Amino acid sequence: MAVLTNLQPSGVFQIFEQICAIPHGSRNTKAISDFCVQFAQQRGLRCIQDDSNNVIIFAPATAGMEQSQPVMLQGHLDMVCEKTPDCDIDMQTESLRLQTDGEWIWAEDTTLGGDDGIAVAYALAILDAADIPHPPLEILLTVDEEIGMLGAAAIDLSEVKARRVLNIDSEEEGILLASCAGGATASCHIPLMWTLKKGLRVSVKLTGLRGGHSGTEINKGLGNSNQLMGRFLNEMDAEFAYALCAVSGGLKDNAIARESTADVVIVPERLNDLCAFAAKQQAVYRAEYAEADPDIAIEVTPLTEDTFETMMGDCRRSVLSALQQVPNGVQKMSSDIEGLVQTSLNLGILTVDFRGMHMTFSVRSSVNTEKQELLQQLADICGRLGGYCEVMGEYPAWEYKQDSKLREIMVDVYTKQYGKPPVVQAIHAGLECGLLSGKLDHLDCISFGPDILEIHTTREKLSVPSAQRTWKFLLGVLEACGK
After folding, report:
1. Which member of 38, 203, 357, 482 lies 3.0 to 4.6 Å from 68 by CB, making a disulfide possible if both were Cys?
2. What mean pLDDT comes out for the span 319-346?
3. Residue 324: partners with Cβ closer than 8 Å, 6 or more residues away
């Protein structure tokens, strides 16, 4: 049963609901890509779909705007798939369960994918309408943006003519983004050897953190459960002996980790001591994160008493040393733009298997040399502990363009519609504008979008009134670009 039927503009929200019915997490984009291709074909529009599932749709200008320079509408097809621990949805195969109160749209127990489903809905709704004036359009819908902008890195843009790009991948109405950080994914590996240890296996679970976007929310003082678990294990090591079976946490490198778990083996007589120590540390962490993450919880659950595979002594020390030494969070603030994070990293995924411990970081910086220095720091830490670091999905920063005709048009349209000028700023998050600028000469890009709260978390919400105003703004910009 349709949930968004009564929302306006109906064309936008009907398509958004169709998108939400198609599973489209990163690396699971074939179905949503095919949907966009079929949408274009049914309307007689030329379309390109590549082997990565990127889609480019070409639409002619409406009457009177045929001589205008083309404009690109750009967004990405994939979403971050997060769900609550008790959610029974298989996000690889099942639809999202949309909810709305008329003011907000959200998905029950999962991320919504407003980042970046709203861009796809806007673009397709324009193609579906006969009464929206616009210049020639090139709709560029990429894949796997959330895991390193892999689609934008792979796409062939040789048939693209547009040099004005409206990137609809921002989440704060009234802000026009004109620059962004570059980044990379760093996958760090520490080798492990195993031995048998007899005792009581105990699960230590660190929960209650809010999580969030590792770019736009990295400066909010949010706790990272992987970092805190590493701290807990090191602090616990100073109190009493234990063997370590496993440690894990986080699901996405670009999401601040919300939950982490470690399994330890102790002598049964120390269980009460461990429980007391966990309670003490919980109080410490809650006090330290009282503003940003006041609900941190450490749960201690005894499992079984037996003989278990545990990390050998030197390997265990390497794991604790790595978790203690690796940097995390904001590393440097910009000296040019007040309040802008310049360089950061996020320990988003932590796992252990028989080969070793694996840590995956999202590394960001608007200064390329600082990004490289941070990647080298991670490599040096791993190297000293007998491991190594792989760098993947590296993408460039999008530099500020002093002379932007597109920015002038958008500021003018916004000011006329809202009665005040927009804010033009840079962002500490990766946007595909950087990669596109590297592929297309003389590109003029601006990123914008409606209000979407707490993206990449199960609390994600899209503002309906903001989406309506942003739709009107988009149409006004297209009309102005066609004159």
Report:
1. 482
2. 93
3. 230, 231, 234
Q: What is the rounded (10 degree) CA torsion for 206, 210, 212, 216?
A: -120
The first and second tokens of residue 154, run together, are 């792979």
Cα dist from 471 to 168, 218, 444, 475, whole Å: 11, 29, 21, 6
pLDDT in tens, 104-123: 999 999 999 999 999 999 99
Question: Residue 174 and residue 225: Cα distance in Å, rounded?
Answer: 33
Beta-carbon count within 10 A of 78 CB: 27
Residues 427/179, Cβ–Cβ less than 8 Å: yes
Residue 67 has pLDDT above 90, yes or no: yes
Phi-psi category of 199—alpha, beta or left, where left has phi over 0 and alpha has psi -120 to 50? left
Pairing mode of beta strands 212-213, 423-427: unpaired
> Which residues make Cβ contacts (< 8 Å) with residue 404, sequence separation at least 6?
178, 444, 446
Quickly state the pLDDT bin for 395 (edges 50, 70, 90). Answer: confident
Q: Which residue has the tokens 């080798």?
A: 191
Within a 10 A sphere around the Cβ of 51, how many other Cβ atoms? 6
Looking at residue 337, its amino acid is I
Please state, in angstroms and rounded to a whole number, the distance separating the CA atoms of residues 125 and 459.
26
From residue 140, alpha-carbon distances to 36, 47, 76, 164, 439 in Å are 11, 10, 8, 12, 14
Pairing of strands 71-76, 164-167: parallel
CA 128, 129, 130, 132 dihedral sign is negative
Give the residue with greater pLDDT, 380 vs 213. Answer: 380
CA distance 9 to 465: 10
* DSSP helix/strand/coil, 84: coil
Q: What is the largest CA-CA distance in the chain?
A: 83
CA distances from 289 to 221, 266, 324 (A): 7, 29, 19
CA distance linking residue 30 with residue 376, whole number of Å = 35
pLDDT of residue 127: 98
- Give residue 368's pLDDT: 85
